[in-house]
């Protein structure tokens, strides 16, 4: 997508073929900086520190991490050690496990001398496939925005989104944002309500940044505003992403998504979730009890950083000294609150039947 008029992916092979480069998302929106990952340790660190983040991109970063590991040492022992290192980086997004399983499956049967090349080829193909899936999600979700636009007498179609399920969370296009970009590019009058998404502010820092660079009209709102907007007819539909969706359609996503879904349900606002196939965990049904929810360092709640008027990046504390904090990073929205799942294979009800129809070969029997 566009950054200062140039076209970027979030992750790419360095020109010298020896490393991988990423957009360092911890520096946005104040600085656009890229970082070089030269080893599996670099890749693991980039995921842990959230230089790269978002379920699909975590998976692709891990895939490249395996390729970097094979470049260092293509032995079986290192294959397994690197898998173990990368799988431990973040617990909730299932794309991580999916990508690592794909890589291990592709590499393990090969002779060690061809593993490096094969691993980079495989990771590159997975990155390309991620873009293709997001593009298809965009085309499928576009039909919903077109339908909403056709129903509106005047004014833009107002879409509310939470966190960053934009191109920064994938290799390109995004999941929740792909239909938005396509609608905008098609000339549909569209406006996006961007939840700021405390505590890490992925909405205010990342979604707003990428929408702004593409020229999409948007407004950043505090996380508690959505319900009020919905009560006043100011949201036509919600579209969020997902970090893990169960076989029966429960959706795990950034903390606060569930509250938006409750408000949408109470106000008859359609609540859609956009996700690619690798985000579905076919081994789980009940998302609330079965999905591991990441709990992050309390410092993210206690402190906030931003740019001062004279251009310095500063961190300040927010919380009364000595007060304990909790930092749950994700929550689960039960399938009953989800109007539909927008996937690369089409839009389906959030149900076991709906998902089984789209992914017949993967669904549990
Ligand atoms: O903690 P993050 O920033 O990795 O969380 C990201 C989200 O919750 C996204 O909504 C989700 O990964 C979907 S990305 C297409």
Draw up the topology in text.
Blueprint: E1 2-3, E2 6-7, E3 11-13, E4 20-23, E5 34-37, H1 40-48, H2 55-72, H3 76-87, H4 95-107, H5 112-151, E6 157-161, H6 177-185, E7 190-195, H7 202-214, E8 218-221, H8 226-231, E9 237-240, E10 244-246, E11 251-254, H9 257-266, E12 271-274, E13 280-281, H10 287-290, H11 299-302, E14 303-307, E15 313-317, E16 330-333, E17 340-343, E18 346-348, H12 352-358
Parallel strand pairs: 6-7, 6-9, 7-8, 9-12, 10-13, 12-17
Antiparallel strand pairs: 1-2, 3-4, 4-5, 10-11, 11-16, 14-15, 17-18
The structure holds 5-S-methyl-1-O-phosphono-5-thio-D-ribulose (MRU).
- Give the mean pLDDT: 97
Poorly predicted tracts of residues: none
Physical arrangement of strands within the biggest beta sheet: 8-7-6-9-12-17-18
Q: How far apart are the first and last residues' alpha carbons, in Å?
A: 39 Å
**Shape field:** globular
Which CATH architecture of the largest domain is right?
Answer: 3-Layer(aba) Sandwich
Number of helices: 12
């Amino acid at each position: 997508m566009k950054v200062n008029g140039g076209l970027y992916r979030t992750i790419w092979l360095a020109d010298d073929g020896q490393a991988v480069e990423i957009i360092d998302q911890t520096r946005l929106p104040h600085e656009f900086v890229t970082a070089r990952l030269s080893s599996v340790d670099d890749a693991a660190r980039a995921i842990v520190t959230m230089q790269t983040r978002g379920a699909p991109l975590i998976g692709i970063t891990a895939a490249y991490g395996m390729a970097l590991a094979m470049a260092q040492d293509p032995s079986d022992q290192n294959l397994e050690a690197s898998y173990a290192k990368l799988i431990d980086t973040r617990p909730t997004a299932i794309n991580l496990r999916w990508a690592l399983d794909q890589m291990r499956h592709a590499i393990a049967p090969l002779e060690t001398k061809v593993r490096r090349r094969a691993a980079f080829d495989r990771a590159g193909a997975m990155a390309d496939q991620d873009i293709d899936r997001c593009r298809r999600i965009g085309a499928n979700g576009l039909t919903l925005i077109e339908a909403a636009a056709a129903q509106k007498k005047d004014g833009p179609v107002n879409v509310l989104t939470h966190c960053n399920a934009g191109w920064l969370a994938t290799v390109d296009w995004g999941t929740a944002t792909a239909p938005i970009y396509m609608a905008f590019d098609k000339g549909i009058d569209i406006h996006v309500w961007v939840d700021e998404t405390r505590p890490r502010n992925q909405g205010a820092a990342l979604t707003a940044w990428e929408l702004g660079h593409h020229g999409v009209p948007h407004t950043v709102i505090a996380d508690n505003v959505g319900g009020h907007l919905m009560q006043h007819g100011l949201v036509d539909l919600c579209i969020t992403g997902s970090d893990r969706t169960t076989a029966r359609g429960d959706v795990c996503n950034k903390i606060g998504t569930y509250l938006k879904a409750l408000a949408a349900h109470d106000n008859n606002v359609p609540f859609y979730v956009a996700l690619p196939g690798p985000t579905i965990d076919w081994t789980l049904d009940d998302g609330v009890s079965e999905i591991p929810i990441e709990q992050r360092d309390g410092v993210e709640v206690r402190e906030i950083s931003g740019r001062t008027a004279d251009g310095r990046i500063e961190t300040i504390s927010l919380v009364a000294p000595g007060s304990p904090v909790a930092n749950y990073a994700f929550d689960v929205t039960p399938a009953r609150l989800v109007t539909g799942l927008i996937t690369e294979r089409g839009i389906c009800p959030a149900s076991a039947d709906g998902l089984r129809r789209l992914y017949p070969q993967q669904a549990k029997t």
